[in-house]
Request: fold
Amino acid sequence: MKILYRFRVYIGFCLLILQSKIKESFTSSTVNPIALPYFNFDVQRNVTVTVGQTAFIHCRVERLGDKDVSWIRKKDLHILTAGTLTYTSDQRFQVIRSDSTGNWTLQLKYPQIRDSGVYECQINTEPKMSLSYVLNVVELRATVLGPSDLYVKSGSTIRIVCRIPQGPHDLGNVFWYKGAELLQATHANEVYADKTQRITIDSDWVDGLTSRLIIQMAVPSDTGNYSCVPTSVAKPGSVYVHVIIGEHPAAMQHNSAERTTRMEARERICAFIAVTFLVQFASNIFGYWTSSANHPPTAHPSSVR
Reply:
């Protein structure tokens, strides 16, 4: 009986130890993963900015604990920041830490097109946890539609259209300049002084910004460089306007081409005549030499004694 009793006590003790191990294992397997930090995916991971516009890439980490966050530039694996410290000599980079939201924001001032690429937010767990972001740096420019040189006849209408595509910026508005002079919609000229609305400017914001400059009754003094200057970060565009009197450059170019063709034809005829003469002259010389070789000169009878 004592042996049986001891056996039961031993079995019970073993069961208690086993139960304790199972509980410990279950607790560690369910609590530890929950205690690990994790990324909040409710952030923009594809960021587009224009050249010179400060870029902000937000990495939000929950339950960070005693861990640190680093920013890595993927193309060269360069460590930009670790914690709140900056590990690059490029002073444009900086990390902005927010305790209240868990944000670790990578700030890049004055970005250039070469800064485009993948940036990685990394937590120093084991193994490391990381989340990739794409930065696109684009250069926006106002584009004046048509050729870079515009020719119009005196008395006709100058029409210039400027377009700025939609981008990651406020499109703003557009100012028109002739050289350094700001154009207004009330300008007249010395010939048509009563045409107070000779210059018209209108813009629309449909799928980008389009601005139109219309100048009626053009005069030679309207010749010059016209610039479309955005109030946004986009770069300006320009066109040079030539106001001409008389023949249009296209016609002048056409007549010039005709004159060039006639001159080329005359040159070809002259060259043909010259070659023909040279061939005939060479043929005569060759015939004379051949005749002299076959019939050597003989002595005159009076010279024979």
About this structure: The radius of gyration is 44 Å.
